[in-house]
Amino acid sequence: MLAFTLRRFLQAIGVMLAVGIIAFAMFRFAGDPVNQIVSIDTSAAERASIRQSLGLDDPVLVQFGRYFINALQFKFGVSYQFRLPVSSLLAERMPATLELAIVATIFAMVAGILMGVYSALRRDTILARLFQAISLIGISLPTFLIGILLIYLFAVTLGWLPSFGRGDVVKLGWWSTGLLTVSGWKAIIMPAITLGLFQMTLIMRLVRAEMLEVLRTDYIRFARARGLTTRAIHFGHALKNTLVPVITVAGLQFGSVIAFSIITETVFQWPGMGLLFVQAVQNVDIPIMAAYLLMVSLIFVTINLVVDILYTVVDPRLRSTVGRAA
Amino acid sequence: MTQPVLSVRNLEVEFVTRRATLRAINGVSFEIAKGEVLGVVGESGAGKSVTGLAVIGLIDPPGRISGGEIELSGTRIDHLPPEEIRRVRGKRIGMIFQDPLTSLNPLYRIGDQIIETIRTHTDLSESAARRRAIDLLAEVGIPAPEKRIDGYPHEFSGGMRQRVVIALAICAEPELIIADEPTTALDVSVQAQIIALIKRLGRDHGTAVMLVTHDMGVIAETCDRVAVMYSGRIAEIGPVQEVVRNPLHPYAKGLMGAIPTLAGEDKRLVQIPGAMPRLSAIPPGCPFNPRCAFAFDRCCIERPEPIRQGTQSVACHLFEPAKETAA
């Protein structure tokens, strides 16, 4: 168990190193950053002094080493457009993105599991077929279109929900949360549904397929032969076995939820990291792009690690190789 | 005569498919008395397992019991509402399946699975159920049960898992145990132990046992009576010595002739030509007629009904009292 965790941990570090090299390479290949900072009439001497102050004339390896050591301390340099440290820009935007991602994932998990279980157990009902149809829409419609449709319906036509922004936020230390105000909750509903819909349909289809598979197994038949209640069989025995693959997918999807929040944040003008990233791309603000890349990979790698460890919590067969010999 | 624990009369089970309605069980009748072990033998697809599942009410759609009666100690249990038959399952009828490796839920400790079953059927408290679970594990021969009760299924060998399955089947002191090929998936050396265990439990608790198997050695060793099934019907039923030593039905004869013995090495084993008909193509009359060496005209027209011959009962026109011929 410890060896397993340690091995996974080392692999995660390897992945992060590789991503770090790619992020650093962006500085070398995406044009001259000095040109982005200065205006046309800046003199060559001034350009050289900016170049030197940014450390851009040092050897590549030195620059990489410096970048790497700074990155370890969450220092990602200074944004070209805002003239502010990237880390504080990201930290300021992160709560918005994380809150959106968490609410979207919880929505996707709860709705997806409920709908999946229902459509597996009551396969031939009209509601189950409706869920299947909805899941098809959720999988095939692109995110931005769903967002725009929601805005049109609930913000423009009905006027129930705001079409953009986070609503009122409350500061809790450095974390700003929109989940403590009514307007914050109103503002998060549509972006969260837009962001989570694809995950929800994915989870729903997965739960349905897994559940049908599990219900056919011998241990479910034996549980029925033991006279256990239908409730205990479906929600105790079958659902727990269904959740093993669901945890993986939901966990890995949490990474993509954060990564793909770029689109949702753009549609809803949600002041998160994704929106920051889109603005950075438009302005070739490489420090932000590189830092965002590192952040998202770190989240992905961490989630992978957590999912691997969670597996062993749910499934005792993976827990120890020592107990097997007993 | 005392009331039998299980009494099945003219049981019919159908599977409704898009093309046709297939009759998997067609007029099966038998009884099992208290403490008696009835063996059910036959080829794959003869309807042995389906009979067991029908008794415990686990025939899943598109299958259904389409006729006949099943009585457990005098009360009818076929066509009970789902919630009531659930209360019968596990409490009054215990079932053991073929593959112990897949019968237990891999994510739950075996103790939790036993305690859950006990508490479903009795009012015992959590701790009392746990003590009972430990006693049960000891009874089925699991060493150090107070330790092993917290183990997961994957920590047990196949034979030990089948013992756990048996403990689960008997945890509410059922009147009847249905064992569906309980030893098929096990090593030969373990098979004998499991069979001895089932036999001992039946004797100690006065439980009736329906033992479905295709292993004639197990039948001869364990059972009091044996039913030979063929194509959804009982071809012959009777005390095990009689049926094994002096089978009447031509199919039973073939089956017994196919048992290898160490003594008769010079003799070739008997083979029954052909294969059992598919459910969709059962011939009219006696279903065995295409493979039977003694078949005559009537076998292809009229379905034979069970006829008593001493302690045995055989469904074959050869034993018709009016035109009795030498068997």
Automatic annotation (TrEMBL), chain A:
**Where are its TM segments located?**
12-30, 100-121, 133-154, 174-198, 243-268, 288-314
Which keywords appear in this protein's UniProt record, sorted alphabetically? Cell membrane, Membrane, Transmembrane, Transmembrane helix, Transport
Kindly give the CDD domains that the UniProt entry links to this protein: TM_PBP2
The membrane topology term of the UniProt record is: Multi-pass membrane protein
Chain ranges of the ABC transmembrane type-1 domain: 94-311
Q: Which InterPro entries match?
A: BPD_transp_1_N (IPR045621), MetI-like (IPR000515), MetI-like_sf (IPR035906)
One Pfam family this sequence matches:
BPD_transp_1
The keyword Zinc is annotated on this UniProt entry? no
Gene3D superfamilies hit by this protein:
MetI-like
- Localization in the cell: Cell membrane
Query: Gene Ontology terms, cellular component aspect?
Result: plasma membrane
What the entry lists under PANTHER family is as follows:
ABC TRANSPORTER PERMEASE PROTEIN, DIPEPTIDE TRANSPORT SYSTEM PERMEASE PROTEIN DPPB-RELATED
Which family, according to UniProt? Belongs to the binding-protein-dependent transport system permease family.
What this protein is called in its record is: ABC transporter permease
Q: Which organism is it from?
A: Bradyrhizobium uaiense
List the taxonomic lineage. Bacteria, Pseudomonadati, Pseudomonadota, Alphaproteobacteria, Hyphomicrobiales
